[in-house]
Amino acid sequence: MSIIEKAMRGRSPQQPREELTPASSSNPPAPHALGSVIERAAVITKPEPLPVNPPKRTQRSVVLDFERLRAMGMLVPDARRSQIKEEYRHIKRPLLMNAAGKGATLAEHANLIMVTSSRPGEGKTFTACNLALSIAAERDRTVLLVDADVIKPSIAKTFGFEAGQGLVDLLIDEQLELADVLVDTNVPSLTVLPAGSTHHLSTELLASENMAKLAAEMSSRYSDRIIIFDSPPLLVTTEASVLATLAGQIAMVVEASRTHQSQVQEALALLDPNQIVGFVLNKAQRILGADYYGYGYGYQYGFNRDERDSDV
Ligand SMILES: Nc1ncnc2c1ncn2[C@@H]1O[C@H](COP(=O)(O)OP(=O)(O)OP(=O)(O)O)[C@@H](O)[C@H]1O
Ligand SMILES: [Mg+2]
Questions:
Q1: Buried (b) or exposed (e) across 186-208, using 16+ Cβ within 10 A?
Q2: Model-level pTM?
Q3: How far does the centroid of ligand 1 lie from the alpha carbon of residue 252, in Å?
Q4: In a 3-state reduction of DSSP, which class is residue 84?
Q5: How far apart are CA 306 and CA 163, in angstroms?
Q6: 250 bridge partner residues
Q7: 227 phi-psi bin (left φ>0, alpha ψ -120 to 50, beta other)
Q8: Tell me: the pLDDT tens digits for 257-300?
Q9: Domains in the chain: how many in total?
């Protein structure tokens, strides 16, 4: 049985999301009307007979605090219109087109998107989380957000939950299955794979046959699934360029007024020249032309604190 199939077994339809243990019982339930309709539908579905040896796996589930995310300037999956939602619509469109094989360039594993940048702190994790939340809001799409920054993991911290085991543990422990380390969220189509334990051979693990198999399976098993890798910076680590070989598309975050063009060029030189690369211009004070860097396709994420805080 494939890793993904085992994971989907752990995610049995007999086990409605409401029965999964939340990370913190003090968190109020998130106001997501569609989610609760789906949950109730799952409850009234006639249960199938239990298998003789029911899977022992219990998948973790956490409740994301949407008000906290909103206060951090992040995209919140509610019905309200906001500047950031609009910006991420522009960012995700070419990525989804490529994933669906309708972009200008065809790529293998195009539904596997790696978010990276040249230097630390340019907004990779911020972008990966927002992109995941934005795509999860799409009809007929599910998102697996992978914290592939195994040296400095931060998806769990950004989303506000205890990371626990994750990708690294999955790669070093043959007893573990994907379902053991996946974290379901109260955004119905969003699942997180945390980075897991720190390991001194992280580059080797990411370059391993196991990792290549895992990535290929994640990508090929379900065509509607988008996998987003939050990654380390290309110019500081070797892990990022190793990961890039597994991804079908690269979303390169560029920090407005800070990242030098030469750094972007240096980072691009570490990638396969045939790879699909798009740019996210982060923390921009104003929207610039789409061909700002004149490389690959251009898209951008404009950031303006006043606009960010006001829903339109
Ligand atoms: N557009 C933005 N609006 C508001 N805050 C932002 C934005 N982009 C990044 N930040 C904030 O800047 C800080 C650094 O961002 P982030 O952690 O995403 O960078 P990173 O590139 O992942 O860093 P690292 O290389 O250390 O992993 C975080 O506190 C994040 O919340
Ligand atoms: Mg980061």
A1: bbbbbbbbbbbbebeebbebbbe
A2: 0.78
A3: 13
A4: helix
A5: 32
A6: 114, 277
A7: beta
A8: 888 999 999 999 999 998 999 999 998 875 444 433 323 333 44
A9: 1
Q: What are the structure tokens assigned to 312, written together?
A: 């339109």
**Domain of residue 69, CATH code:** 3.40.50.300
Mutation to probe ligand 1, out of 119, 126, 150 (largest number of atoms < 8 A from CB): 126
> Which atom of ligand 1 approaches the CA of 308 most closely?
3
Nearest-5° angle of CA 92, CA 96, CA 99?
140
- Give, in order, the Cα–Cα distances in Å from 29 to each of 88, 127, 162: 25, 25, 18
Structure tokens at 93: 């469109």
Domain span at residue 297 reads 3-309
The dihedrals phi and psi of 126, each to the nearest 5 degrees, come to: -55, -45
pLDDT (tens digit, 9 = 90+) per residue, 82-126?
A: 889 999 999 999 999 999 988 777 778 999 999 999 999 999 999
**DSSP letter string over 58-79?**
--EEE---HHHHHHTT----SS
Q: Strand 190-193 and strand 225-230: pairing?
A: unpaired
